[in-house]
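Supplementary Methods S3. Input chains for the assembly prediction are listed below.
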Amino acid sequence: MSKDVIGSVMVVGGGIAGMQSALDLADSGYYVHLVEKSPSIGGAMSQLDKTFPTNDCAM
Amino acid sequence: MHTLSEVTEVSGTAGNFNVTLHEDARYIDINKCTGCGDCAAACPVSLPSLFEQGLGERKATYRPYAQAVPGAYSITKKDRSPCTNACPDHVNAHAYVALVAQKKYPEALEVIKRTLPLPGVIGRVCPHPCEDACRRQEVDAPVSICTLKRFVADQVDIENSPIPEITPRQEKVAVIGAGPAGLTAAYFLAIDGFQVTIFEALPVGGGMLRVGIPDYRLPPAVLEKEIRAIQRLGVKIQYDTALGRDITVDSLMADGFESVYLAVGAHASMKLNIPGEDTEGVITGVRFLRESALYERKQASGHVVIVGGGDVAIDAARSATRMGADNVTILYRRTRAEMPARNEEIEDAIEEGIHIDFLMAPQEVVAENGKVSGLKCLRMELGQPDESGRRRPVPIEGSEFVVACDMIIPAIGQRVNPAFLEGTSGIELTKWNTIVTDTISCETSRSGVFAGGDAQSGPWIAIGAVAAGRRAAESIRRYIDKEDLKQGRDPIEPPQKNFNPIPEKIEPQFREQMARIPVAERVSGFTEVEKGFTEEQALTEAGKCLNCMVCCECFECVKACGADALTLATHMDKPHSTELNVGAIILAPGFAPYDPSGLDFYGFDTLPNVVTSMQYERMLSASGPFGGHLVRPSDHQEPKKIGWIQCVGSRDQNKCNNSYCSSVCCMYAIKEAVISKEHAGEDLECAIFFMDMRTPGKEFERFYETAKGKHGIRFERSRIHTIEQTDDGNQLTVRYFTEDGRLVDEIFDIMVLSIGLETPPDLVDLARRLDIDLTPGNFARTDIFNPVATSKDGIFVCGAFQGPKDIPQSVIDASAAASAAGELLATARNTMTKTKEIIPETNIVGERPRIGVFVCKCGSNIAGVVDVPSVREYAESLPYVDYAADNMYTCSQDTQDMMTQIIKEQHLNRVVVAACTPKTHEPLFQETLVNAGLNKYLFEMTNIRNQDSWVHKNNPELATEKAKDLIRMAVAKVALMEPLVETELSINQTAMVLGGGIAGMTAAQSLAVQGYETHLIERNDYLGGQAVNLFHTSQGDKVQEKLADVIRTVEANDNIKIHLNTELTHVDGFVGNFVSTLASGGQSEELEHGIAVLATGATPYIPTEYAYGQAPNILTSLELDQKLIADDPMLKTMNAAAFIQCVGSREPDRPYCSRVCCTHSIENALELKKRNPDMNVYILYRDIRTYGEKEYLYKAAREQGVIFIRYSLNNKPVVSATGGAITLKVTDHVLGLPVELSVDMVTLATAIIPYADEKLANFFKVPMNEDGFFIEKHAKLGPSEFATDGAFLCGMAHYPKPIDESIAQAKAASSRAVTLLSQKTIFSSGTIAQVDPMKCAACGVCVSICPYSAPSFAAEGRFAGKAEINPVLCKGCGLCVASCRSGAIHLKGFDTDQIFSQIFELDAAV
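Predicted structure tokens for the full assembly:
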């Protein structure tokens, strides 16, 4: 563990997991770098039509 | 946010990492792009959309999907297309071909003219190196790029095409020679504004193009037209003026020319150097062609012999034929294979009756009467290769003979005539008389004098001269501007290799051929032979382009972009590196869907109606490639029967090397089947082919049962043999083995392959770079007791990279990983974040409304349909509107700054924006209001795009009227808007965790480490919960040892206050301010806390079935664990043991799967086999549900001889215990016959049942499902919290789960709690409900209906007993407002008068 602790976190991947991590950390007082290899975040979930159980639009 | 970025390097340690990111260029300014899409509409390049899984197309400039964040477009650009790259002048062939395909001919011409002012000329004469490089020849033949260029020139009148804007300059430049180099240099210098004069020795322009290329190949009219187009830019041409004869470089300099460009060409001929060469009747090819071009054509007659094998030889021969020669022969020293002339030309010559004699070398001209009578020749043969690589011709001794002829035309090459240097000094020549220049700047040995074209390079192709001319023009500009001539012009380019892949399904096509005039017509004159392409031919050829570079750099998008986000400068963006310094890293890189290409028995590569589940998701989607209309891909007919094949790319070592279960496919297949029925109606037949149906998640089993029962979806336990297409190509024959071994053929319309999840190779590389361990399935290795930590400290993981998993589990892991990072970095919290500056709010209460209306054009999205200026004028006329404007993009940053300014200057106190959807843009405009000092609720947004211009595209007039109506309504509403207050509430910084099991302890520990005082409440006198009964985990950890560690850590934490033997007896208050009463040993105490975590766990089912209790060796799973922990010696001596699964689970009165039992029994079966390998172990099951990498255990058990026997719900095993012997009767699922087993021990895998604690649910006003498990806020997006603010959820109180998932959820609950606690104070929304107590009848409907527990009855004060609404809890949903029968509740911002004002305005419109 480093002595000089940095109050920021890098999250690699902007899918549903990465976004949730990034939001939690940002809302908890950390600076977040969200790194996504495609032009926009959203990941695989944005491609899904509807989701169980409510059959809500995944978007 | 770093988009288009990947991690390349990480160094450092936990708490302090240095990261290097590689960021690809977007080619669009992300800060300026408004996402209007005008660029994509203009883009000529289409390619398959990855987002649509290849079922739809997208442009080279694109946004993956409409709702993408960031909403900015981006451009896909690979290495420069080979055609463009191969061209000496880099004429952008890709772009003009792409534009031709769009019938954008003037635009195509514009692209060509960027680098080439002579399109019609080069389109006719170029030997097209571009086509030699074209990758289309890997499919069939190169695209006819050159002819397409000619086609463009033939379609558009270059003389009337637009002229670039030129800023004139005073400086004069002299160009010597009006050939392709000189003309091109003059053209680009003129564009730069210089005063250019071309001095040409001949009486005509074009140089060799005019006097070297015969008219039947290049009609003079074409050349003259393009020269006139150059002269339109102000270029002067002075004919009959030769350098060295009439002028010198010095005289030009003296006349005020700043710079001179030498492009005199190579117009002298090489000599044969044989005796008699000066005889009358011998004329060089160059001279012959020049005279034929310039003067009245002489008639040729008799036999004409041409010596040479290049283009000039062919041109001379074909010209001679046209001039009346009786016969024409070409003599060439080598063979056809070595001829440098273009093959098409040679073919044409032969077609026109020209004879070619190979391996002939002229020796002497034979004369008669002073005139040519023949040519003495030697026969040759090919010897060793020479320095050019061609085999050197060697004479055959004694083979001399004489070819009788009347005219000899030597055409063996041209050279530079050095006469131009007469009177000019300081210009160095090579030994071949070509001019010496610098390779980059083209400057000669004399400063300010530049040279190019054939005079510099020696004879070469015209496009080479054009390239030289353009390069020289840039040098001359730099010279005059006193800039460095070379900087940034390094000719060495990186290798070009990264191209758009060639599609697999591509049909070879014939190459289009130009029509030509008949041979008889050809030989009788100089009419142009080739007629060019018809439009149909051009479109076909252009359509064959493979778009190697993807973006073709036509720059149509630059013209289309009104927001200045896409410019020539952004098009030149380069990838770059970014360095980050971070304390922790969370990996959430996801998965790749398994690619079933190559599995030929499924026919995915060849059969259009076999699709992957990801493709099927897109097919179902309303925004997908078929607009949500469920159709067969092959013929777009509605399907009658659809099948799903499970485990494609999962649970399969042989075909795909993925032996794990992908966890999600069973559920999504059921979901897709149910939704398909919703789309197509109940008549649609759906069948799911599977091995085990795995629905172990919360509410999953119920969904499965509903799918079977209510929706009639057929579940077929089977193995697929093959899928083949029926004869008409629109249906599929599926051949499969049923469970009892029958082979069945069945017809389907669509087959969906339920593809699994896998880690793509680039992630495996990333893991290697980061030095983190992977599992056998290539997922990040984690520990059961630390499920989001990778093998490297400070690097955490969540989502499908941790193991194949669904959305809820990914979201849980995500919050858990955030919590793990937070625990690590707690000391540095709030050190890197910034707080917002607070701008004082202007008090507008009592002022008359002064409304500003901003109407957006959204590029052409709105303005293309709605008459925006007239809408703006109309808005100005509305009551209280003091200001109205229209903007190209109201959302762009410059417009925001302008709006702030206008609000202040005009003293506006209400704002309406008529643009797109408030869903995405309202917060942006509200921030602008705040920046201008206005309360953000003094705002109304109306959607004249999605709800107007987009849907009424074909009716612009009515769309304009509708926009006016919408704005009138918005203005009426906003006029009644008042500033709203957001109530502030402080958050008590203490946490309470209920339940001292693994989940509760983990949550408490996580909160405590992050600095919050935490009270851990446990009703028993010990910590550990159900884990105290467990033997080991699926990874083989001894649970009791690990549990002891956890308990010790919790007990040692000063921030944790443990309350054993304690019950919660009462809870008051709400988020941030709870007061709970704790009772212990008859004593009560009150605890004030800001949040609560419910981790109250679950309990094992005590069976009444299977003779439980009738014999000591009929046990529950936990009882077996106790025996294993105690190392009971009987476990080693038994001969046979059986496990019965689903005891109490998946039953009609308990219709859920307990999730852990399959894994637990298999683990213990393996343990029994380990203790006694000879023991017969049976597992009686309904479906084996070892999801994820737990599948390896199932595989290992089968390999080690554990016998799995499936039973069904209506034919359960029967257990009888008589004396010490236990007998099991079960029907074998394969044989269909009853089997009797004699065993020493039976373990019942019993259900996990919830406490269903109504009292606790009421304390926190949280709901429970039918089974008695707590219901989370949202099944997918809020799995670890309640809809009630401040209450969080984890562990088995949520649903049965193994230890790792409990720990992850506990950390997730803690993370969610910390996001609240760390705020210290929170603000309510302004748009909340408020009770008018004078009208309230205290009926209580609002109290019971609110999902957030915001209304309650006032306990004291003047209005005690009346409803009041806690502003902090109210979400502004309006349920209570609608339900209040007294009309006592008002929703601020949406009050009755505001709604009515809109309706009344609408009435006026009707």
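Residues 1328-1387 of chain B form a domain with the Alpha-Beta Plaits fold (CATH 3.30.70.20). The mean pLDDT of chain B is 94.
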